[in-house]
């Protein structure tokens, strides 16, 4: 298994002092900065664009930036995020007319690429593109807003995707996003995840390091 990555979602951070917030969470032991990009069309919320990514890079953030695009159409915005400093760009199959072409576009722009699956999205979209994926992200809430509760059926979906990745032999990360907390992260890890997005579970706490340390302690116990 790959090393565990904890990826705080800045959707739950204090945007009035975002650079400071990201610095603090990385100093506290986070591995990746997670961007939730929503267009008020594909999902019912409007969040952030490439300018925020560029601003964090100019601020001095060197950690990987994991950009989750909840937008439609997706191809138009990919080059902008790549230019702004994204490391990984993931998108929903529903947001692309040609999934294979969008994955290739992300790679051509110099970023790692991945597909995102909502709770109700079937996994057949993986069938012909496993060789083009660096990451698979499973949503364990319906996207649009932070602070939602984990949907338990995501665990079985994680197991199915873990089997697909292991059988494929490809180097693909398996990410989970939605309702991830200290009290369920061990179970999520045991189901096959290696990359854990957490927003309110980290940013709503007074001590980021304490939460991340507790998450790592739980991950170490996963079988």
How would you spell out the order of helices and strands? EHEHEHEHEEHEHEHH
| Coarse shape | globular
- In terms of structural class, how would the helical and strand content be classed? alpha/beta
Oligomer: single chain
* Fraction of residues in β-strands: 15-25%
Strand order of the largest sheet: 1-8-7-6-5-4-3-2
* Low-pLDDT windows of residues: none
- CATH class category label: Alpha Beta
By CATH, the superfamily comes out as Aldolase class I
**Assigned CATH architecture:** Alpha-Beta Barrel
CATH topology (fold) name: TIM Barrel
- The average pLDDT score comes to 96
Terminal CA distance: 12 Å
**Count of separate DSSP helical elements:** 8
Q: Approximately how much helix is present in the residues?
A: 25-40%
Number of strands: 8
* Overall number of domains: 1
Largest sheet: 8 strands, parallel
User: What is the CA-atom radius of gyration, in angstroms?
Assistant: 16 Å
Structure description:
This protein has 8 helices and 8 strands. It has helices spanning 18-27, 50-59, 78-84, 99-108, 154-168, 185-190, 200-203, 208-221, and strands at residues 5-8, 33-38, 65-70, 88-91, 112-117, 135-139, 173-177, 195-198. An 8-stranded parallel β-sheet has the order 1-8-7-6-5-4-3-2. Helix 2 (50-59) links the parallel strand 2 (33-38) and strand 3. Helix 2 (50-59) packs parallel to helix 3 (78-84).
């Amino acid at each position: 298994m790959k090393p565990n990555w904890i990826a705080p979602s800045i959707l739950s951070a204090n945007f009035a002092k975002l650079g400071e917030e990201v610095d603090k969470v990385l100093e506290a032991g986070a591995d990746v900065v997670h961007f939730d990009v929503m267009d008020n069309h594909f999902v019912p919320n409007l969040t952030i664009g490439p300018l925020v990514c560029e601003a964090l890079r100019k601020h001095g953030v060197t950690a990987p930036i994991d950009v989750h695009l909840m937008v439609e159409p997706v191809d138009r915005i990919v080059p902008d995020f790549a230019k702004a400093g994204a490391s990984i760009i993931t998108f929903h199959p529903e947001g692309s007319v040609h999934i294979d072409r969008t994955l290739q576009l992300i790679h051509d722009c110099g970023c790692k690429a991945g597909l995102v699956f909502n709770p109700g999205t079937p996994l057949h979209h993986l069938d012909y593109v496993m060789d083009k994926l660096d990451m698979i992200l499973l949503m364990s809430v319906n996207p649009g807003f932070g602070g939602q509760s984990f949907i338990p059926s995501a665990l079985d979906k994680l197991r199915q995707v873990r089997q697909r990745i292991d059988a494929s032999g490809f180097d693909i990360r398996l990410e989970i996003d939605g309702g991830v907390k200290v009290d369920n992260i061990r179970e999520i890890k045991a189901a096959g995840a290696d990359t854990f997005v957490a927003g309110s579970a980290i940013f709503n706490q007074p001590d980021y390091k304490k939460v991340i340390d507790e998450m790592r302690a739980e991950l170490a116990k996963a079988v």
